[in-house]
Amino acid sequence: MRLTRYTDYALRTLIYVGLHERRQSSIAEIARAYGISESHLTKVVHQLGRLGLIQTTRGRGGGLRLAKPPADIIVGAVVRQTEEDLALVECFAGGACAITAPCRLRRALGEALAAFLAVLDGYTLADLLGGSDGIEIATLLGLPSPMIEVAPHLCPSTNILVE
């Protein structure tokens, strides 16, 4: 499974804005921090706004900020909403395959995709921002250290404690 650059940029944008919650961020500063295309990021930010994940304010003093608390942003949902196509093989998208009916590969890949998304559903943006990893990411991006407290919880798909 490989996520598109679009989804990668969406997740990175949410991480940046989440770590920088105290003030609004701009597309230009996010693009500069990650070394990515501003024009491509603009499309991503537009969709994140339409999805209700970030608020955008135009004009002087404008910028981006999270539209909801990081704990309410589920990583698996973001992936589903930003990936154009989660069809791992042609038959998932209704394409023709000579062995579709009895194919066990299709079932195995379907289970693998469901497991992949279930694991991501066990994480919120707050999980990605918390602890020493969030502080290290903020430092690498040139941001002040985040002040986000994240309580440990059990990942529903694995029953592993996530800090």
Automatic annotation (TrEMBL):
Gene3D superfamilies: Winged helix-like DNA-binding domain superfamily/Winged helix DNA-binding domain
Upper classification of the organism: Bacteria, Pseudomonadati, Pseudomonadota, Alphaproteobacteria, Hyphomicrobiales
Keyword Isomerase: no
Database matches in Pfam families: Rrf2
Species whose genome carries this gene: Methylobacterium cerastii
Keywords: DNA-binding
Name of protein: HTH-type transcriptional repressor NsrR
Membrane-spanning parts: none
NCBIfam families on file: rrf2_super (TIGR00738)
Domain of life assignment: Bacteria
InterPro entries: Tscrpt_reg_Rrf2 (IPR000944), WH-like_DNA-bd_sf (IPR036388), WH_DNA-bd_sf (IPR036390)
Keyword DNA-binding set for record: yes
